[in-house]
Design goal:
By secondary structure, this protein is an alpha+beta fold. It has helices at about 5-15, 20-40, 85-90, and strands at about 45, 50-55, 60, 70, 75-80. A hairpin with a 6-residue loop joins strand 3 (about 60) and strand 4.
Length: about 90
């Protein structure tokens, strides 16, 4: 089963709880994760992955067509690191 978006998560959870509870759980979970990352906090899913905000430093690049220098400012983005336990499970030989 793919769990790529909120609708997929809601559908999955409806197997275990009613529709209203599933919608509330998914909305709350995604909101908490979003607010935590925006605030600069690291979010971890026990034994699976860690998501943390990072800052890519600004730099000066050249425009390919004109040769003009362009300043690219600092940007915030996310880094996702798969935890050791999950890597071992994924690569476990059966």
């Amino acid at each position: 089963m793919k769990l790529e978006n909120k609708a997929d998560w809601r559908k999955f959870l409806r197997q275990y709880v009613d529709k209203i509870v599933a919608n509330g759980m998914v909305t709350t979970l995604f909101t908490v994760i979003e607010h935590s990352l925006i605030a600069g906090d690291t979010v971890g899913v026990e034994g699976i992955l860690t998501i943390k905000p990072i800052v890519r430093k600004g730099r000066v690049v050249k425009n390919k067509h004109t040769g003009e220098d362009i300043t690219v400012p600092d940007k915030r983005t996310l880094a996702c690191v798969v935890r050791k336990e999950m890597k071992e499970k994924l690569n476990k030989e059966e």
